[in-house]
Design brief:
Two copies of one chain form a homodimer. By secondary structure, the first copy, chain A, is α+β, with helices and mostly antiparallel strands. In chain A, α2 packs across α6 (about 180-200). In chain A, about 35% of the residues lie in helices and about 30% in strands. The longest helix of chain A has 26 residues, at about 390-415. The radius of gyration of chain A is 26 Å and the shape is globular. At the A-B interface, β2, α2, β3, β4 and α3 of A face β2, α2, β3, β4 and α3 of B.
Amino acid sequence: MAKAITPRAENYSQWYLDIVYKSGLADQSPVRGCMIIKPLGYALWEEIRRYLDAEFRRTGHVNAYFPLLIPKHFLSKEAEHVEGFAKECAVVTHHRLRTSEDGKGLVVDPEARLEEELIIRPTSETIIWDTFRQWIHSYRDLPLLINQWANVVRWELRTRPFLRTAEFLWQEGHTAHATAEEAIREAELIHDIYARFSEEVLAMPVVRGVKTESERFAGAEETYTIEAMMQDRKALQAGTSHFLGQNFAKAFEVTYLDETNTRQYVWATSWGVSTRLIGALVMTHSDDDGLILPPKIAPTQVIIIPVPKPSAELLQEADRIAAILREIGIRVEVDRDEKHRPGYKFAEYELRGVPVRIAIGPRDLEKGVVEIVRRDTRKKEYIPLDQLSKYVPELLEQMQRELFERAVQFRDANTYYLDRWEDFEDLMHEQGGFVYAHWDGTAETEQRIQELTKATIRCIPSDAPQESGRCILTGKPSSRRVLFAKAY
Amino acid sequence: MAKAITPRAENYSQWYLDIVYKSGLADQSPVRGCMIIKPLGYALWEEIRRYLDAEFRRTGHVNAYFPLLIPKHFLSKEAEHVEGFAKECAVVTHHRLRTSEDGKGLVVDPEARLEEELIIRPTSETIIWDTFRQWIHSYRDLPLLINQWANVVRWELRTRPFLRTAEFLWQEGHTAHATAEEAIREAELIHDIYARFSEEVLAMPVVRGVKTESERFAGAEETYTIEAMMQDRKALQAGTSHFLGQNFAKAFEVTYLDETNTRQYVWATSWGVSTRLIGALVMTHSDDDGLILPPKIAPTQVIIIPVPKPSAELLQEADRIAAILREIGIRVEVDRDEKHRPGYKFAEYELRGVPVRIAIGPRDLEKGVVEIVRRDTRKKEYIPLDQLSKYVPELLEQMQRELFERAVQFRDANTYYLDRWEDFEDLMHEQGGFVYAHWDGTAETEQRIQELTKATIRCIPSDAPQESGRCILTGKPSSRRVLFAKAY
């Protein structure tokens, strides 16, 4: 039997951990707040990276790599940034260990204290903008469009694999522009890439919008965000891109000579998505039997299992089918394991989220058919061998589309337009969900609502129409609805 | 004019730095010993990663990701390993900064001291073997073939971009096996992958062999190495794979039940190559005008430059040629810059090492030809347009082959078989080179030779024939020659 997963209805948090640890996405590590990303989890990250990297290249960005360690004084150069990032971080103070006096262990060598402490990057704006000062002199050097794939560390108190870990993997884009308009267009371009990737590849519908001032990235003038609904009806911020104005340019004195030979500060953006997307993927699609992966992101899209056993004849046929599917670009594998029974294997591949399972047995082969089962619906069909190269890609496309539609339906069924505070409070104290409501635009009200219900303003949605109304808490006038939800 | 490069003959070390900084491979950083890998340098790393990752997959390895930070006590578990790695490293002692009392800067918060210090990984054997203990129970779990692409930090006193930096990027493979024989085969398989990659892709000839006991990796029972000759006739260790015996299995108590239900320690390997390969690439092929990149690794293989200017007509033709070459898998770009003159551009692309330059001008076009220049030989040819799709790929292959042959010739011309100590000493004090000489097999002699000449034993070459002789220093008997050189 496959390892038992706690049902969502019983304990949602434990269900999530069970999926992550038992499907082989990640493992706990001996280092506080850090996880081990296992081969299946890392393969998902590689797929995410492959798609996004191609998009970034297509839109003119290039990859580079900046140091892991940042001198302490860099962090205090941008006033808001320091508040947001300089506090809970990993601080390197020494550069040597020596054998302890009892000869058995290691101690920090007090003589190897660094003159200035180094911080493991929580994000790289500071060191990158320090470098941009050397790289940017004239309008000819702009725009500068840099991306970095890297690890970062933020000392989080409460951690959860993929969703919030002390160390995580991400990409961080950092760009410099001659005008504010161009920088804003860049932030919006990336916002659009993130949203389309989430919906088209991860099959995860998102609400697009901008953050309120109090939820913005530390040092940003505008933060664009995509917000997805998880199966417990909480929101998850899946990717942000920031228009940074001239804040970092001024903090690090990054200027250029424009075409009239006048010195100007440059305009900036930064943007990132992280291994958090893997947590979002799990919580959008999976069920009580394990992972469900949308075909476009699944490292293995089709598993072929000879039943009841991988005899030479069945393996030959399995390999033949695999070759046909591989030829048309499908990621397919053949199960050659002789130790386990079909029932065990079926459960294992369901646990690991492989979208399509093909079982081939001697009887089916005589009839010239195979059994095909889709992971999400478990619908079983018998398909003639000579139709596989047409049927399988169509099935994968259909599954991709239907996973997205199912997620949209779930979200819409749990989205409300509320105008009465009692309804808002009741909903947030009970099942939760996305609520579009009027807000008076003040940070005080935003904070008060959070204190009363734990719900925060996820975003001011891009497509919210102008609509006059009254703030759901204070009754003060408002011109559009914003999106509230409890969030990860 | 392109930025001036110090000639090799004048100052080899400065030549290397000039190439690295002026061609756009890397930049200095404000963090001691750390470099910024610029887009061209990072693109080379991505090509290296792409080739090797495919080879690792083809041979059954999977990627995973382990934490950056390692608990201090892990490092002292394997006695030799601690000597080699636990000393000069980055030590994290605190997890918070706070605003200083004058309100202007940041200080380490003394209340946020970690209970146990964390070390930024200098290599990951310890944390990976701690994990393998959870993953390995039975012979069915073996072999376990894991690779990781990651950054590591070693606190080096003297650093040089790519060759020796505090932080560098690498891949580290870690495998576990049921038998010693299988682990040794694994170490040899990877050794072969590294050697073929160096020769076939980087066009860098290597001597294959094993390290002497004193040069082995800390904790290894055998270290396989590939050694290349740089243009200053010094050796560079380009990639190592280690048979670790049962040392880490015993230190971390990693056992399995074999088919007879007997508990056994597992056998281990580890292996890695790093961004150092980019330094090796520079020093193998480049000249006084800049980088020379072998076509197989060059991010841009062909640059097409409209001369004297990118007129609409010339650009159209350039794009047409680019499309034809792209179609047959060549990485090609068209120069659209209107600001600089052809001479400047030619020098810039030479500096950046683009293997082939195609210039198209109005007169040539009338004649139906283009001018093609190869970066290394600068040989200029006029080729009819309709022959480009045949000529260019052949030229790239020829250049790849000839760069390798030229490097082999250079190495062979600077390789000696010496039997007299005076000759050895003279050579090492003058021009240097590779020397095959007899050695009595003792660490004392090895060390004495290093003290007298700075030359070390690079390896005991795999293909050195049995040959009786006398140690070049002590005159004691020896049964085969080993390879001596001064090294990076």
